[in-house]
Amino acid sequence: MTPRPDVWSVGLIMVDDLYVEGEPRAMGLLAGGAAYACVGVAYAGARAGLVARAGAGIDPDTLAQLEQCGLALEVKQVAAPSIHERVYVSAARETVYEWEPGSGDYEGTCPRPGDFTSDLAPDQCVHIAPIPVRYQAEWIAFAAECGSMITLDPHTDDSAADPDAYTDLIPECTAFLPSALESERIAGPDHEQAARDYVAAGARMAAVKLGREGCVVATATDVTFVPARTVHRSMDPTAPRHAVCGAFTAAVAQGRSAVEAAQLAVRAGAHMVQHAGTIAALDALPPKPGPGH
By the 8 A CB rule, do 117 and 103 touch? Predict the structure, then answer.
């Protein structure tokens, strides 16, 4: 019998061509927030499940590699083209995203609860990676009805265009996990206060991701800064924030405290940034997520 995932990671998979200044080009990578979150889940020693839509352009052999790496797949094949983007990263880590001509769109590539065919149980956690907030709301309603734990990483565009849309979603979250930019748009520039506000709004815990600095994590009783790990070579600076979310989610599902989850999450982010693409990061996972990793 195939083991059930501890965490289902819901969101986009796409194809990235990565141009990092000072590093070789990496073309045709399996990318996307949901896939990168699975790396974090696996780093934490939990079993990850990926819920996504695979449009034309996603290599079936790559999906088979994910299964070989231990992921459970709820991936619906669709005729719509996959999202294919070029990612340019300067030496100063300024990042520019360009969608390839003919690339797919969110409507065709965002998974819906109706795509999901497995059972979802209260002892499983659903991590909802960045997709437009209208789709995130559907997944939160679905997971909440099943009694599952929910973690939410907001969508960058919607955090600017419709920040109030998250007001109704935060109370359903076990953990709310915005980036610094997203949090500034939703709750203002004071990250510690924002983290407190998310908990006051109903989330059991919150972590504001601060990139290379680390993260601020809050519960009903404490706010703690957790510094990032030092990394000497950055292969893919676009992916770590998603691995952070995956590891944080897995750690919470394992019963760890918010601070312990954040400490593990920043280590997962440091692992992810040193590898280009989902497959390379999964292939290079340490044997155990012990304190030395």
Answer: no
Is pLDDT at 105 greater than 60 in this prediction? yes
Q: Which domains does the chain have, with CATH numbers?
A: 7-283 (3.40.1190.20)
Q: What is the DSSP code string of the chain?
A: -PPPPSEEEES--EEEEEEETTS--EEEEEE-HHHHHHHHHHHTT--EEEEEEEEETS-HHHHHHHHHTT-EEEEEEEEEEPPEEEEEE-TT--EEEEEPTT---HHHHS--GGG--S---TTSEEEE-SS-HHHHHHHHHHHHHHT-EEEE---HHHHHH-GGGGTTTGGG-SEE--BHHHHHHHH-S-HHHHHHHHHHTT-SEEEEE-GGGEEEEE-SS-EEEEEPPP-S--S-TTSHHHHHHHHHHHHHHTT--HHHHHHHHHHHHHHHHTSSSHHHHHHT--SS--TT-
User: What's the whole-number mean pLDDT along residues 233-254?
Assistant: 93
Work out the mean pLDDT of the chain and round it to a whole number: 94
Judged on CB neighbours under 10 Å (0-12, 13-18, 19+), 292 is exposed
Look at residue 2 in the predicted model and tell me its pLDDT. 62
- Count of all residues that appear for the chain in the document: 293
As a whole number, mean pLDDT of residues 212-230 equals: 96
Give the count of beta carbons closer than 10 Å to the beta carbon of residue 76: 16
pLDDT tops 60 at residue 290: no
Supply 77's token pair: 């094949």
pLDDT reading at 70 higher than 80: yes
In sequence order, the 6+-apart residues with CB closer than 8 A to the CB of 128 are 10, 11, 136, 139, 140, 143, 150, 151, 152, 153
